[in-house]
Specification:
Keywords: Hydrolase. The chain is of the alpha/beta class. About 35% of the residues lie in helices and about 15% in strands. The chain contains ten helices and ten strands.
Amino acid sequence: MPSVAVKLYSVFFKFLLKHRLQNRIQSPPEESSPFGVTSRPEESTAAVNPSFTDGVSTKDIHIDPFTSLSVRIFLPESALIAPEPDSKPKARTTGTGSAQVDTVNHKLNQHPSRRYSYGTAGTQAKEEHRRNSYGCSNDVEGGAVVYRGYSPLSNNSRKLPVMLQFHGGGWVSGSNNSVANDFFCRRIAKVCDVIVVAVGYRLAPENRYPAAFEDGLKVLNWLGKQANLAECSKSMGSARVGGNAEFKKTDVHRHIVDTFGASMVEPWLAAHGDPSRCVLLGVSCGANIADYVARKAVEAGKLLDPVKVVAQVLMYPFFIGSVPTRSEIKLANSYFFDKAMCILAWKLFLPEEEFSLDHPAANPLVPDRGPPLKLMPPTLTVVAEHDWMRDRAIAYSEELRKVNVDAPVLEYKDAVHEFATLDMLLKTPQAQACAEDIAIWVKKYISLRGHEFSY
């Protein structure tokens, strides 16, 4: 059973959540704005940090001028270290800044090598603020390395998979820059060795279905656009050099710009992102968005090139249905998110004329919910023993396995809904173990070596 502290916090959490949901339902309906909101005033947020704090640097980008849609990029420091073909770590003892490099190597060697899919954890660091072969502009501010960007002419920077992450919050709360989500995404970026793009989708009731789903798909398309713009920018730089034109140092950082003179190329993704190895990870209602985006990616096919969704992770998805499952009956009053409150959240999310517990956004088992399940990407489902939504998530996974999709289920004993992402539970051993379990499975599909069973 969950601890006494978890039970007490659950009572307090449910009281506040129910109060907020009822207030939003009872408040007079306002004319919805397409711009929308992506966070609530009561949400504790983590500031963006361009320095590699705890091995991860972050950047916020507002990617759609017509809505509040934004992303927070989590770039792991391992992206700045070139992969080594050797299996043994090499220690650097000579050269400029050797003391600093030795410190970096020491920190890297503290991490288990199982967390890195592209070489060993302790690889040879680059010289002086990692400036050399990447053409990047790194500075030291307050003792921390601040990563500025990249050179379009650089073609030997390390490419990492990209993971789109969709936060939870029952459609009406949560944000991609909350303290809890920031901590979770940092952890995932490090253990999976990926660039995490946390999506700040529009919240209900200001923006009801399908706004959040459309935002998720829009970010996937934006990722493909970034990859194509980066290639164009690189081609322009190569043509300038190859054509014997006068080459200036400032041309190294020349990007394709929009009509207002701002760079359209996101340098972190252009230098280090590999969209052909894209993973979707959704938490609670974010898992519903991830599953929708995966289905749309399957329908789009090669139209999304070079983006390819190779796997998805559904963490305690926010599924429901009109015919209750066994867990929905037995655990209806479970911890943190009971069934009655979740139905209120669905009423705030779905338009009144479309409200149904068997809506395709709510129930993954309704018929004629395209595309065919056999075309879906490999899907890992994480469920908790004391979560009333558990059985429907397991049933969806079983349907995927029936058509030969790799769709395992990880069920955690004595766990509650959002046990690995809720603020007070993030630092528990169970939450850490969940992140590592996700990393082990995901690396089967993002590793350049094909399979990652050598831990």
